[in-house]
Structure formats: structure tokens, C-alpha cells
Amino acid sequence: MKIIFENEQDTTKYKLLKKLISSVMVEGFQHLRMDDIAKYMAVSRATMYKHFSSKEEVIEGVVQIFIDYLEKLEDRTKEDDEKWFGLWFQKLFEQSVTLVGKISDVFLKDLQAMYPDLYDILKGALNKREKMTSEFYQEGKNKGIFNPINEKFILLQDDILLREIIDVKYLLYNQMSIQQVLNDYYQFKKIQLFKAEKLSIVDDSNIEPIIDHLVEKFNRTL
Fold first, then answer.
1. What are phi and psi of 134, to 5 degrees?
2. What's the predicted TM-score (pTM) here?
3. Which of 15, 170, 201, 222 is the most buried (most CB within 10 A)?
4. pLDDT 10s digit of each residue in the chain, 222 long?
């Protein structure tokens, strides 16, 4: 990986790539030309080439944005306080919604076909997150905080059910807002995961601004 965002919020490359992500997630990038990339970034070809020398470098940058995001939760410190499980449940919820909304099947298929090395790197990061999440659920079960549910089913639920219910077609058909769906799914997962006597360790006031932020991002992509 060549592109490094030392201070991602202040780098021009990062900002340009963020403008591109929504488009490549919906349409893929296999047939994307550099002219198209400049258009989605809302800059001239000359400006784009100041920062990116090739299409591969652009996609490499997109992949790195996702990897950086995936790695944000890797350095979790284990604490004895049970409230820690409530906080981590909420952080994983936020990341799950973001990943399902951002990393599409069409993007992954194009990545595997055109840049298999980048695909392997991204899949490796996703698999690492899945392993870490599975260990978190297992630890919660061992400590008597979580219900004895197969953690693989919980992960599969996020990948399939969550992807289905945040789809615009589902929302329109069921006349539901993305805010309502995310609130309902959060409550569904909380009650499903935590034992009844442990629900009080989850502070729902923490999730309200998180869901508001997710809704804002979702609406910007429409």
C-alpha cells in the first residue's frame, strides 16, 4: 500500500477519494476511466493527476481508507467493568452499519477481478475484524453478560439482514425511515445479545448521536 494518510482529515488525497467512494460502491469501477474519476472528485484532470498517477493508485487509496477504518477498533483494551461490553457493542454496531453501507458486493467483485492483491489485503482486514468481533461475543458469553447465541449467526445477521433492511427499496416498500430502521435494529440486537439482567449496563444515550450521524451519511448518498 503506497498511499499513507498521516492526518487523513487534512489531506487532499483523502478528501478526493471520499468523494469517489459512493459512486464506485454503487456502480463498481471496472469500466471507470480517469476522466470519470476526475468528474466524481469534482476536479480537473490536471488536478487529479497531481495526486494520483493511475486508476490502480486511486483504488488502492479507497482500499486503504477502509483498512484504516477497520483498524480503529483493533486496539481495544479489555476491562473488568461490565459497562465496557455495552460501549463495545455500540462501537461494533456503528462499524457494522457503516461497512454494510459502504463496502458493496459490486466493489468487491471488481476488486477481485482487477486487483487481486488489493482484494486479498481488504479481505484479510475484514476477516481480522470478524475474528476480533467473534472473540468479543465469546468473551461476553463466558462472563455471563451475553446470551449463549452462536456468534457466527450474529455476524451473518449483520451481513445479510442489516444489508437488506437499509436498502432504499426495503425502506420505501415498508414505508420506514432509515432512522427508524437503525433504532429498531439496535434495540433488536441489544435484547438479542445481552441477558435480561445485564441490559442496564448499556447506556442508550450513547447511541443516539451515533445513529443520527449514520442517518446523515446515509441521506447524503441518496
1. -60, -40
2. 0.85
3. 201
4. 555 555 554 588 999 999 999 888 888 998 899 999 999 999 999 999 999 999 999 999 999 999 988 887 655 556 668 989 999 999 999 999 999 888 888 999 999 999 999 999 999 999 999 999 999 999 999 999 999 999 999 999 988 999 899 988 999 999 999 999 999 999 999 999 999 999 999 999 999 999 999 998 888 776
